[in-house]
Each structure stands twice: as C-alpha cells, then as structure tokens.
Design goal:
With 396 residues, the protein is an alpha/beta fold. It contains 12 helices and 20 strands. The strands form 4 sheets. Strands 16-15-14-17-18-20-19 form a 7-stranded mixed sheet, sandwiched between helices. A 6-stranded mixed sheet has the order 2-6-5-4-1-3. Strands 7-8-9-10-11 form a 5-stranded mixed sheet. Helix 11 packs across helix 12. It is globular and about 70 Å long. It starts with a strand and ends with a strand. Bound molecules: S-adenosyl-L-homocysteine. S-adenosyl-L-homocysteine binds next to helix 8.
C-alpha cells in the first residue's frame, strides 16, 4: 500500500478522528497512488495513523476511512459501513407517516462522498469522491439487498465531482426501473410530489423535516408568510395546522407549480393560500409599501456563505433579509429563520439576528433553536458536518 507521510504536528487532527487530510499537511508520498486508491497515512516519524482515499486533485488529499491498522478495507468493510448507516435509520423507517429521508450522509456516516436519499420506493445516489466511485457496484448491490427499492438513480452533483477530478456522471437509472416524473412521498403525514428524475438538482429538502413540524405548531389560526418556499415544506405544514392564511414566495416557477400540486394532493383549502413568484428581498419591500403584516414569517434562504471567505458578505445579506422580515411582523409575532451555511455557526447567526433586530428597532427573544434531524447526524470529530441551524424568535 502507498504511504502518505504527514508534516510534523499535522497528525493531531487525524488522531482526533477528523476525516480530512488537507494537501498542505502532506510531507511526502511514497509510491504513485491513483486517485481513489486506499493508502496508509503516517505521522512524520512513519507511525501508522489511519487508512484513507487518496486524491491529488482535491484540496482534501486524503479522506480517512479507518483508524484501526488491523482492519482491512475490503468488500465486507464497505457492506458493513452501509449496513450500519441504514440500520441507524431503523426508527425513521418504522414511521408510517414518513417515507423520505437521508439514508447515508457522507462523512457523517463514515462514507466520505456517498449520499443516499430515500423517496418512497426509490433511492437517489450521489457519488462525489473518486474513492467512492471505485466501489459503486458494491454500494448498489448492498443497497439493493438491504432495501429492495424499485429503482436507484444517479443524482451526483457535477460541481462537487469536478473538485475531485471526476467527470460529470451520466445520470439516469443505476438499477431497477426509472421513477415516474413525480414520485409522491410522505413526510410527517404531508404528501409531496417530488420530481426526482429530471435535471432539477434538488428533489426535496428532507433536512427540514423536524423543523417544519415544530414551526407549524405555532401556525394555528395565524397569518403565515413562507419565504423561499420551494415546493411548500413549511407552507403545507402550516395549512395542515389550520393557519388562517398562508402566502408562499419563491423565485422559481417550477417550485411553485409543484407547490400547487402538493396543495391539491393533500386536499388543503386552496382559498387560504397565495403564491407569489418573486425575489424575496423585493417582495418583503413591496409588503412594507402595501402595509401587509404577518403573525409568523419563515425565512429559509439558499446557502449565502458557500465558504468562510464569503462570511462578511453573507452576514450582511442574512442581516438585511431578517431585518426586512422583522418589520413585517405584527407585535409579538414569530420569525422562524434558518441558515444552511456551514461557515456560519449558531452563535454567529444569533449575533446576526441581534444586529438585524437593533437595526429594525425591535426586541427579539430566542424561543427555540433548530438544527439537523437524526438522518443528518453531526459527528463529534467532524464539526464541518453541522450546517443547518435556525432560530425561532419572538419579535416585539
Ligand atoms: N423552505 C423550502 C426549501 C428552500 S430551498 C422547503 O421547506 O422545502 C431555497 C429556495 O429559495 C429555492 O426554492 C429557490 O428557488 C429559492 N430562492 C433562491 N433565491 C431566491 C430569491 N432571491 N427569492 C426568492 N426565492 C429564492
């Protein structure tokens, strides 16, 4: 096996079970490993530290897999890891009201670069690292044996693959049959039509499952504004909990079309719901001009800070967005505000909200903190895996 020797002092993170070795930490490489090949990582003295995937194209030169020198990473090892991840979702699988969730979440499940989501009878697979690509056949076979899905299809994100020097995957069906244009899934008893086969990258955001349920508990009898609604995760739950009115804003026409379908398949009252296809920032200003006010506002924007370098700009964008929303709340109204930027932690996010409140001339009480659900675990040795956070704020 080829050996990657680390620079002096760079063994610390590896010993703490962090799964990444950055290229800058590498002192020397013995041999010429291919991308995706399993190599041994040693400290500067040549002492064994771990086994991992090598990749010379990526900023992460080695993705670590196993810290026990006696364990061989073979077909059985891969099958064991997949089984463990799937078994950890047993309780979710037993829930009759939910049949969409994440089965395998990359590093968080000790499988760097593999993401598997369930959509009712279908599985979607993302392979984002060269090491994972080499084991595709075993992965497919194990998933088929464990879950017997009607079909497994490829939804690997091309830009993530390109960071590893992988070409865009061909997409399409990997095993079984192709899903229909819309697959109907269930989450906490709410139905969603999900377009999983088409080019649209994101089929459904299952990481907000618990948060949708919790926010909706505060929606009864309320006038609700759901910003960045996508296919209606928060809107539908609010309708289910008998909100008096729900307005959904998103810039994407296909997202709103799917939301319309979703209201129909759930038999929710169409008259209570309004769609607005618009930029949220513009729409919030328009509401101020028209004097519209709401009891509960949800802000679930896309990732504003893709990396640490974007932190300042992103913080200002989050602040402005939240300030605008606060100005539209009735006295004592609720703001459920989220960030899925890994670079912004919960403390920073609280500071941003505090800053927005000051600027808006409001007083905010944090009454709940949102996080990721159990199928998006956060490994104690991998804080980078924590990306989704949110705050429920009472604004007066
Ligand atoms: N809340 C949703 C997920 C939101 S994903 C759910 O529960 O499923 C983010 C959404 O923001 C996408 O649907 C995207 O179309 C929309 N979006 C991105 N930028 C926007 C903007 N400036 N104005 C309005 N919508 C925007």
């Amino acid at each position: 096996m080829h050996v990657v020797r680390l620079k002096k002092g760079k063994e610390k993170a590896v010993k703490q079970l962090h799964p990444w070795v950055f290229s800058g930490a590498v002192e020397s490489i013995k041999g010429k490993p291919e991308n995706g090949e399993i190599i041994t990582v040693t400290d500067n003295q040549g002492e064994f530290l771990a086994y991992g995937f090598f990749n010379d194209q990526s900023r992460v030169a080695v993705r670590l897999l196993e810290w026990d020198q006696q364990v061989e990473i073979n077909e059985q090892w891969w099958r064991m890891r997949i089984r463990k991840a799937v078994n950890a979702r047993k309780e979710l699988m037993a829930d009759e009201n939910t049949n969409t969730y994440r089965l395998i979440f990359s590093e968080a499940d000790f499988l760097p670069g593999l993401i598997v989501d369930r959509f009712a009878d279908y599985l979607s697979l993302q392979i984002l690292t060269s090491g994972m690509e080499r084991n595709k056949e075993i992965i497919l076979d194990e998933l088929q044996q464990l879950l017997n899905p009607a079909g497994i299809f490829d939804r690997s994100d091309a830009s993530a693959r390109s960071h590893e020097g992988l070409e865009a995957s061909s997409g399409g069906v990997l095993s079984g049959i192709a899903p229909p244009e819309f697959v109907t899934v269930k989450e906490n008893g709410v139905l969603y039509d999900v377009n999983i086969s088409s080019g649209q990258k994101s089929g459904f955001y299952c990481d907000q499952r618990e948060n949708r349920r919790i926010v909706a508990e505060h929606a009864r009898g309320k006038k609700v504004l759901d910003c960045f609604s996508y296919s209606g995760g928060f809107s539908l739950n609010a309708l289910k909990q008998n909100a008096s009115e729900v307005t959904s804003v998103d810039s994407s026409a296909p997202a709103l079309e799917t939301l319309a379908r979703n209201i129909e398949i759930n038999h929710f009252q169409q008259a209570k719901h309004t769609f607005i296809q618009s930029d949220v920032n513009k729409q919030l200003r328009a509401f101020r001009e028209s004097g519209d006010k709401f009891d509960l506002i949800i802000l679930d924007p896309p990732k504003y800070a893709p990396s640490r370098s974007a932190l300042n700009k992103a913080s200002r964008a989050y602040k402005d967005l939240n300030r605008q929303a606060m100005l539209l709340l009735e006295e004592g109204g609720l703001l459920a505000t989220f960030s899925c930027s890994g670079a912004i932690d919960i403390l920073t996010f609280k500071q941003i909200i505090a800053w927005a409140a000051l600027d808006a001339g409001k007083e905010v009480q944090f009454i709940y903190q949102f996080s990721q659900p159990e199928d998006h675990p956060i490994r104690s040795s991998f804080p980078e895996g924590e990306y989704l956070k949110g705050l429920l704020c009472r604004v007066s």
